[in-house]
Each structure stands twice: as structure tokens, then as C-alpha cells.
Amino acid sequence: MAEAVATYGLTHIALTVPDVERSFAFYEAVFGMIAVYRRDDLIQAQTPGARDVLVFQQGHRGVGTSGGIAHFGFRLVDPAAIDAAARRVVAAGGTIEEQGDFVPGEPFLYARDLDGYLIEIWYELPTPVDGASAIRRTRSVVFVCEHGSAKSVIAAAHFDRLAEAAGLDARAISRGTDPDAEFPPMAINGLARDGLRPREQAPRLLTADELAGATRVVTFCALPDAYAYRGPVERWDDIPAVSDDYDRARTEIVNRVQRLIRSGLA
pLDDT per residue over 94-118, tens digit each? Predict the structure, then answer.
């Protein structure tokens, strides 16, 4: 028998949607997907740390229908995350169709996205053909500043760049406790000089679920009492203001990110 074609498995699906930005925003909010390619009528997105490719292509025929495919799914790395996943689906505008357990230890939910596609989010107990990477949990670092538009964005972008170069299985997100409506030009232009850009389209509000799921929390400001977070926090609130001196702030942030990378998040 001929040797099988080597692949990374079934990793790609393309969805017909009437508004690619609106549809992508749902998967960005729920799963943290990142747009890796954009044009007016198409967005190609991936989950950090995975090899999946989800494409949103503009169209109107057959939107929300399966064409014989019952659903597609996202496999959790932690069964305890199922309730947080349900909350994120609802907060992003989706609807929960069903939630329960296939067997003890294997929770699931079925939900509809903004276009009516049926998705499954579930945890599968490791099987004999799972590789080690299939059950490895990608660690996360949450960088927080008040407006979520400058210091935390710079830190997260450089963390992802340096973590990838170091082979560290971790990713970062930037959040604000009182986020601005958009990123300031100085942050966008400064990142562009390093070949980087913000991961999101606009600053986003920090959530309690993101704090609870983080491997490390780094703040450039005090966390409001409303978060009731009692975990460890690394404070970087002595970094100079980006608006006063971008290059100096960038240098100090990158130096600390490098030390964080070298620690291995231990």
C-alpha cells in the first residue's frame, strides 16, 4: 500500500458570509482567532498556536447552510473551559443550541454563529492517536493598561514575536480596563516600524475569564476592584508614557518582555 500523504490533519474550512468583518469578529471574540490575510471580500484567520485556517469569503448564496456537513468544531484543551466558552459565545452574539456531557469528562456545546452556522465546542479525552501537541495547553500572558491602546499593545506584539523566535509555547493578548475606541497613530506607526501590528482591530475590555485563564498577568496600571482578581500580578507601571517618548517606552517594554521570555514563564 502506498504511503499516506503527510498532512497536519483536517485544518481548513471556508464559510460564505455576507459581511466578512462581522463574521470574523465573532470568532475573534470567542476563540481569539487572528486575521493573517485580508482583502475587502475575504479574511483568512488562524488560532494562535494551532495550524487551522478559517476563511470568511463574501457571498450570499447558502449562507448558514451546511450542504451536507452537519457542523464543524473546536476542541478544547481544558474541559473546565466549557462554561467560559458558552459565555463568550453569547457575549459575541451567538446562541447556544445544546450543552451537556457526551460522557463524564467530555463536556460539549453546540452553538450558532452570527450567520447561522452550527459549531461544536467540546473536550475530547486523549485518544491513542493524539500526538503530544494535541493535549499541550498553550500558555497565555495578559498585558493590561488602562486604555488598552499603547503599552499593552506594544508588549503583546513584541511578546508574540520573541516567544515564537524562542520556541516558547505561549501567546499574549493586550487589554484595557477602560479601553479607547481605537489605537493611536503613534502606536500603530511605531509597531509598523518593527514589522508588527496590533492583533485586534480596536482596543478591547479585559474580562474576568481572561484573567482567570492567564498563565501570567502583567499590568501597566492598577486593576479595578471590580475584577476581584486575587492571583499574582506583575506590575510594570513605571514604564514612561508612550505619548511622551515612544522609543524610550518601547525599549523598556521590550527589555522586560525579553526577561519574561527568558524566564520561560516559570
Answer: 999 999 999 888 899 999 999 999 9
149 shares its domain with 241 = yes
6-15: long-range pairs with CB below 8 Å, 24+: 8/51, 11/50, 11/51, 11/52, 11/53, 12/52, 12/53, 12/54, 12/55, 13/53, 13/54, 13/55, 13/72, 14/54, 14/55, 14/56, 14/57, 15/54, 15/55, 15/56, 15/57, 15/115, 15/117
User: CA torsion angle for 216, 221, 227, 232 (degrees, to 10)?
Assistant: 30
Residue 62 domain boundaries: 12-122
Q: Is the pLDDT of residue 136 over 70?
A: no
Please tell me what DSSP assigns to residue 17: E
Whether residue 130 is contained in a domain is answered as: no
- Spatial distance between the Cα atoms of 168 and 265, rounded to a whole number of angstroms: 9
- Total structural domains within the chain: 2
